[in-house]
Amino acid sequence: MNAQQTSPITLNVDLGDRSYPISIGQSLLSDAALVTRHIAGKRVAVVTNTTVGPLYLDRLVELLKGAGKQVTTVVLPDGEEEKNWASLMRVFDVLLEEKCDRKTTLVALGGGVIGDMTGFAAATYMRGVPFVQVPTTLLAQVDSSVGGKTGINHPLGKNMIGAFYQPQAVIADTSTLDTLPDRELSAGLAEVIKHGAIIDPAFFDWIESNIGKLVGRDPGALSYAIQRSCEIKADVVRQDEREGGLRAILNFGHTFGHAIEAGLGYGDWLHGEAVGCGMVMAADLSHRLGFIDAATAARLNALVKAANLPADAPDLGVERWLELMQVDKKNEGGQIKFILLKPLGTSVIMPVPQDVLLETLKACVR
C-alpha cells in the first residue's frame, strides 16, 4: 500500500455500456482536455453552491468556455437542509429558462448534496441528460460521487426520492481539499473508515496506522484513501448496481446515521458525522449479538474518535429512534434491517431482536 502516490490515477467503474472513469489527482480542474473529454455536446450547465462557487466556479467556467462550450450556471444555497424539492426545481427553472436541450451536460461542482441533486436533475430533465461529477469534498470523492445514487431528502426520510443514474465521469481534484474545513474533512473520513470496516480489514489497519496523517491532510495518505475507497465502491457497484443485495452493505452505520440526521433536523450534524456515530452504534450492536469481540468494537470507536467524529449518539427518545429507523430503504415488512460486522472486514444484513437494539440505544445515547 503506497501512501506516497500523488500523480493522477484513473479507475474504471465497469458497468458495460454505462461504464465510466474516475480520475483522481491534484489540479485536475486545470486540465482542459480531461474535463472536456466527457462533455460531448456544446452546452454545459454547472451546478454548484454558495460555498464552493466562489472558490472554483470561475475557473471551471473559463476552462469550459475556452474549449468552446456554451456555459450556464446554477448556484444553490449550501447545506444538507437545502437538498430538497425547491432546490431541484431551481435547477430545472434555470435549465428551462436558458433553453438547455437534451444534449446539455450537467456538471456537479461540489459535495455530496450538489452531486446527488445534480444527478437527479440529470436523470429527470428531458427524461435524462448526461452529467459529470466534480466532487470537492472528501466525502463526495470517496463515496457519494461514485455509483450513480442520486436524489433529494424528504422531511420524513433521507434520500427517499431519487434515481439510479450513472455519470459520464468522476473528476476528483484532490487540490480542492485544501479549502475544505476540518469538520468536513473528518466527515469524509467516516466513509473511508466504513469501506475498511465492511470489506477490507487490511485497509482498516492502514487507516488506523495513518489516521494522524489523514487528519493532518498528508497528500499521499489522502490520495491513497480516496483511491482505495473508490476501488472498493466501484467493485461493489459493478456487482450490484441497483442495491438488490450486496450494495446495501455500503450503508453500514447509515440506519442509525440517517435517524440522527432526520431526528436533529438536516444540517445539524454533517452526514459523515452521523455515519461515524452510526458505525459506533452498529459495532456495539454487532458485539451484543456475538459477531465481533469487545476489542474490535473498541477499535472502531477509537478510530472514529481519532478522526474527530462524534461517538456519542444524541438523545432523540427511544420511540423517535425506532420511528426514524423504520423509514429506511433496506427495511421490509416493517422490520428494521442493519448492516453488522461479522467479523471486522465482513458484513451481514439482517433484522435484530428489539431488546438487543434497545440495549445498544441505551449504551450509545449520551
Provide an overview of this structure.
Helix content is 45%, strand content 18%. It contains 13 helices and eleven strands. α6 (182-198) packs across α8 (219-239), α9 (254-264) crosses α12 and α10 packs antiparallel against α11 (294-306). It has 366 residues and is α/β, with parallel strands linked by helices. It has two domains: 9-179, Rossmann fold; 182-364, Dehydroquinate synthase-like - alpha domain (Dehydroquinate synthase-like, alpha domain, Up-down Bundle). Residues 1-5 have low confidence and may be disordered. The strands form three sheets. It has a seven-stranded mixed sheet, with helices on both faces. It has a two-stranded antiparallel sheet with strand order 7-8. The longest helix has 21 residues, at 219-239. The protein has helices at 32-36, 53-66, 85-97, 112-124, 138-144, 182-198, 201-215, 219-239, 254-264, 271-288, 294-306, 318-325, 354-364; strands spanning 9-13, 20-25, 43-49, 70-76, 105-110, 131-135, 149-154, 157-164, 169-173, 337-341, 347-351.
